[in-house]
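Fold this sequence, please.
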Amino acid sequence: MGSALSMFISPRLFTASASLAFAFWCGVFILGVAVLFIAGAILLDQRVEQRAHYAPLKETKRKAQFSDLKHLSMKFWLVMFTLLSFYISYICLLNVSVGYLIDMFNFRNESEAGQLPVYRV
């Protein structure tokens, strides 16, 4: 949500102010607020778990090692590969989509064309 909002607002700020630094820092601020919301959600979740009086799990003193990866199931690796492939292709699409949209649909400028991928998020 934060990245979509940042991608939507940053081009408009750049067009309005003609300052790349201003648009950049506004985008960073929006993403920072999104991170703060995530941290708040994690803290709320921990507080709910503490109040639920779950039986404590046995603590193990063993640290995770690289060799533990071979014990993960094939389903885990398939899901991870699928998610990784999706996000890599999506981010690459966002990098080249503005130029493609300008050529294909005759947008007037990069700001208009950059807003279309945000609506798909």
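Residues 70 and 77 are 10 Å apart (CA to CA). The mean pLDDT is 76.
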